[in-house]
């Protein structure tokens, strides 16, 4: 039972990180009148998710590690088309 509970908490952090990485990558390209509104929106998504997950250490670590990996992979230019 303890393993399944830990796995659920870790999965919650990883899935949250993947969603935030994709939504933040899309949102950060938004600008209103030349003002980079999307950057602040993307950072707000990251902070909101991290504040919600900080209650559980395993979810928080899973979120931080998966977010870093996802943003690294999204930022690569394997075929000259980078999302970031």
Which secondary structure elements does this structure contain, and how are they paired or packed?
Elements lengths: L1 H26 L9 H17 L3 H18 L10
Helix pairs in contact: 1-2, 1-3
Provide key terms for this protein.
single chain, 84 residues, mainly alpha, 73% helix, 0% strand, flat
Molecular structure report:
This protein is an all-alpha fold and 84 residues long. It has three helices and no strands. The longest helix is centred in the first third of the chain and has 26 residues. The mean pLDDT is 85.
Strand proportion: under 5%
What structural class do the secondary elements suggest?
mainly alpha
Instruction: List low-pLDDT spans.
Output: none
Number-wise, the strands total: 0
Please tell me what the overall shape is: flat
Discrete helix count: 3
Helix content: over 70%
Distance between the termini: 40 Å
The succession of helices and strands, N to C, reads HHH
Average pLDDT score: 85
Tell me the radius of gyration. 15 Å
For the largest beta-sheet, the strand count, sense and barrel status come to: none
């Amino acid at each position: 039972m303890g393993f399944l509970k830990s796995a659920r908490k870790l999965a919650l952090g990883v899935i949250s990180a993947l969603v935030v990485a994709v939504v933040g990558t899309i949102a950060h390209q938004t600008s209103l009148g030349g003002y980079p509104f999307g950057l602040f929106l993307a950072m707000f998504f990251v902070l909101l998710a991290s504040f919600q997950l900080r209650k559980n250490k395993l979810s928080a670590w899973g979120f931080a590690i998966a977010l870093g990996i996802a943003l690294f992979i999204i930022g690569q230019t394997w075929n000259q088309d980078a999302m970031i």
